[in-house]
Write a structure and sequence with these properties.
disordered N terminus; 7 helices; elongated; single chain; two-stranded antiparallel ribbon; 4-stranded mixed sheet; 210 residues; alpha+beta
């Protein structure tokens, strides 16, 4: 963390306090809003546990000091005006004092679609490092024709399960197909996000089929 940049925070603008938006580092959900003065900010950096300044009690308080539901610091960013903080943290238990995951009563759950990008990054790493004993490595070594063939095979098995199988097996085979498609795209220097971008462009009313 570059503290030289972060210490440009303008604590004087709002009577020594700056809003601190707390975001879950894993799910990207906004969890709560608190306020920090310079002392709370410094304690947060030093302890790795998010600490605020309580406007009602006029004192510092570390989130979780009574409940055990700490916010473990990952990263802090300041906004363009140097008077608001974005704090990324890993929560330990519910964040709201009412027992909910967030102060807006939302469930703090990871969108499964986010894992697709994580999988893409993992397959990219396999392509770069080519570790021995990895099935993904073996696909890259087998070459483009074999990777394309595997996508076709898994697509056929997906169709078979859709027509004559169970929902569970359909999901299983569709997962195999998607995995092998990502491998194929990676071998061509592409990413699954390129497919998503194409689908997004098709959603426009002005899109025309090539």
């Amino acid at each position: 963390m570059d503290t030289n940049i972060i210490m440009n925070i303008d604590f004087k603008k709002n009577n020594g306090l700056v809003p601190a938006i707390i975001q879950d580092n894993r799910t990207n959900k906004v969890l709560m809003l608190g306020y920090m003065n310079e002392e709370a900010y410094t304690k947060t950096i030093e302890t790795g546990k998010v600490t605020f300044f309580s406007r009602s009690r006029q004192c510092l308080w570390t989130k979780g000091e009574t409940s055990g539901n700490f916010l473990h610091l990952v990263e802090i960013k300041e906004d363009c005006d140097h008077d608001t903080l974005l704090v990324k943290a890993n929560p330990e238990g519910p964040v709201c004092h009412k027992g909910t995951d967030t102060c807006w009563g939302e469930k703090n759950e990871t969108n499964p679609l986010l894992f697709v990008t994580e999988l893409q990054d993992f397959i990219n790493k396999r392509h770069e490092e080519m570790p021995e004993g990895s099935y993904t490595t073996s696909l890259f070594k087998d070459g483009l024709n074999r990777m394309a063939q595997k996508v076709g095979e898994e697509a056929l098995e997906t169709v078979i399960e859709a027509v004559n199988g169970t929902d569970k097996r359909l999901i299983y085979e569709a997962s195999d197909m998607l995995y092998h498609l990502i491998v194929l795209l990676t071998s061509k220097g592409l990413r699954i996000e390129d497919v998503a971008a194409e689908l997004k462009s098709r959603h426009s009313p002005n899109w025309q089929k090539h």
